[in-house]
Amino acid sequence: MSMTEVRRAGEAPIKSEFIIKREVSVDHQDIIAERSSEVSNGEPPSKKSKSKKNRGQNKKRDFFTVERTKKPCPNLYGEEKCAFDDCKNLHTEEELKSYLDSKPPDVSDQCPVFASNGYCSSGLTCRFAGSHLEGLVNICKHGCLVKNPVKPVIGAETGIIVGSKVENGTGWHSDENAEGHKCISLFSKQFKNVTPRNVVQDLRKQRISFRNTADYMTRLNAEKTKIDPNFEKFDFLEIEEHKDVKLRIEEIKRIDFTDKLYLAPLTTVGNLPYRRVCKMLGADVTCGEMALADDIIKGGFSEHALLRRHESEDLFGIQLCAPNVDQILKAAEFLGTSGHYEVDFIDINMGCPIDLIYQKGGGSALIPHPRRVIDMVNGVMYASELPCTVKLRTGVKQGVNIAHKLVTRLKNETRVNLITLHGRSREQRYTKLADWDYINTCALAANPVPMFGNGDVFSFEDYQHIRTTYPAIAGTMLARGALIKPWIFKEIKESRHWDISASERLDILKDYTRFGLEHWGSDDIGVEKTRKFLLEWISFLCRYIPVGLLEVLPQKLNERPPNYFGRSDLETLLASTDCKDWIKLTEMLLGPVPEGYFFIPKHKANSFS
Which among 352, 388, 442, 579 is annotated as catalytic? Predict the structure, then answer.
């Protein structure tokens, strides 16, 4: 009998020579004897004892935080001296030398950021600083600073360490032929959509007006007072008084998404470094993590960090989530008209199943409320002057599909650019198979508005099957499949199964690490933030089974492997579901973890004490 025939339901078909045999730890005779003893004592036999499975999520997770200490002033790396008289950071030469003496040893003798960009913005605080420090000078490769052989150590009187002109001729000085501070500008221009601090303050103090939103909401509310409150079906764009709104929306240039490979907006793991990896491996469309509209217009730093875009993301959208029309309109107007952001489209989240979002009326709670959704889509386009897309699920309850009703109204009453349908209900979350037959039904109802499908695509064969079986579906959005196997974009474009080696997979992790250090910084805080998000991603990557180990191709997304070992020690380590092994992987890339380090995985099955 082959291994395929005896494997358990839902178990991936791995070749027998790679499987670690399961050991039975309990003697069945002991169980029989125990039950016989219970009966002889006059007690009914107990039900079969089952160990409670360690399932579900660690919803209240705690994270390791780096102890904050005094550090060199960030303005040391700018063009001007520190503007704060009472700045508590380090400035003098004596303070900076003392700081360097007390720093932990460098993680490596090569800084990934410096090697890639020729300049490291973390300067003295970098955990790889030895490769780009000479004395107190943070050097660069772009000719901004040229060494003076007479006095190679910068004097404290200059005040500025990087990118400054030292007119008295001591230490380092700017190259006369360099235009400005190339080392800073070449590095920072890669990252777009960085909200200026003064703009954040204006949002917090409510000093920014939202004229387009106010105009749209005034018009909308005026129409709603004219109709029966129980009758929600009226076509706002076709009302004569608002034809200017329709004209403005129709003038917005539409994006052609047909046949593009779309990386789904993924909470926590879909950060900028991860999106850069996916772009490198063939993704066509990227979208930022779900951002709460209300937190954006209130100036929340954490939410504004989700808006950032890398220059490699040539077709990029921002996904907004809100329960109310005016909230999402204000956020969209701010992103589209403030002049601080480069955004190609706004996506409205109507699929998030998280209880916190759903109970407040956002995410998938919007699906049964077509009037509100229609007002959001038209309003976002009017307020932001950008194309608008939506992402939704089949419905709220399992087996009660209602998305087709909403899709029909979106087609008739809005100018939505793209509809993406995840083939599961909110109640299903990510269990059971996605219903592609129903996605196709909705795609036919949406025509000519393009519809993308989402769910369970994990190989080029899955992709080709969908494209040939359901020609009405315009394209595919990839989510968990791209988390577990980010090279799926390359496989689809090349129509092949890539038996990627363990060393090639490690190289992808090295790229992610470099991107993370560029994004979050290479100081101790940036290193540990990169480590945290790398661990979050490895919790998905470990589910991948190498092609050469499978009896039957391709691997299915809902199949889980038995315990197995790889073709090398590294491949075995990459397949481990033990969080301690994940930490070992990060130590290969980011050095040893700090004393007292801990990481609580999202899923309880991977937890350890």
Answer: 352
